From TrEMBL:
Keyword terms: Membrane, Transmembrane, Transmembrane helix
Bilayer-spanning residue ranges: 33-53, 59-78
Superkingdom, natural source: Bacteria
Ranges where the record places region Disordered: 209-234
Feature: compositional bias, Low complexity: 219-234
Database matches in InterPro entries: DUF4191
Protein's UniProt name: Membrane protein
Keyword Transmembrane: yes
């Protein structure tokens, strides 16, 4: 038991440092975060303390108020930090891939299954909702990428439903902060074994990054995509 204590003590400063860093990053995009958190904590504690005086148990309800104020503050902080993070990622290349990578269990994601010379890109996710193609880039250009990817998949997974989503803020698009929620709301139509079979079939297609003869390390300056985008589409 004594050996575990130093490890736990070492972990706590790391967590506190991470929380402090998250707060600093959030404050850059949301300069009212401090006032909001303080307001939430004071209001929750004040309400429970007032109820405590009314019922004759200010100490008990005061302690409960402290705990619930801390919980409410943590929830609000988490949501505003997430909103600030999405705001900073909005419009950045690869932002959708980062969201898909953290979508949760039950999904297998493959970034950059298709891309063109303008760096419009399509990512793929497979789960019990079927196949979801997520495009980011120019809405008009990504249509051709999505259509080409659907044609390729149709040859081997024609019996699996395919959904396509375009990330953006325009009409008919899905905002980055709503991408995960939108995907999790899709109806589940496949069983676990069917998802596994679908993934096995799609592995035959590979992805853009594994099929391109790219050198190891950073991409050389001035290097461009081959004409036609995905070399598998030739």
């Amino acid at each position: 038991m004594a050996r575990k204590e130093p490890a736990a003590d070492a972990a706590n400063p790391g967590r506190l440092k991470q929380i402090a860093l998250t707060y600093k990053m959030t404050r850059k995009a949301d300069n009212k975060i401090g006032l909001v958190l303080a307001g939430v904590g004071i209001v929750v504690f004040g309400v429970f303390l007032a109820i405590g005086f009314l019922v004759g148990h200010p100490i008990y309800l005061g302690i409960l108020g402290v705990l619930l104020a801390f919980l409410a503050t943590a929830i609000v902080f988490g949501r505003r930090a997430e909103r600030a993070a999405f705001g900073q990622m909005e419009g950045q290349p690869g932002a959708a891939a980062a969201v898909l990578d953290n979508i949760g269990r039950g999904w297998t994601t493959t970034p950059a299954v298709a891309m063109n010379r303008n760096q419009d890109v399509v990512h793929r996710a497979v789960g019990k909702a079927g196949i979801v193609l997520v495009a980011e880039g120019n809405p008009n250009r990504v249509k051709s990428l999505l259509a080409a990817e659907k044609r390729k998949m149709n040859r081997i997974v024609a019996d699996v439903p395919v959904h396509d989503l375009v990330v953006g803020t325009g009409e008919g698009q899905v905002e980055l902060k709503k991408l995960r929620t939108t995907m999790l709301k899709l109806p589940r139509v496949l069983s676990g074994p069917q998802v596994t079979v679908t993934n096995d079939r799609l592995r035959a297609l590979g992805d853009l990054m594994s099929n391109m003869p790219l050198p190891k390390g950073p991409m050389p300056k001035g290097m461009r995509m081959p004409k036609g985008g995905n070399p598998r589409q030739r």
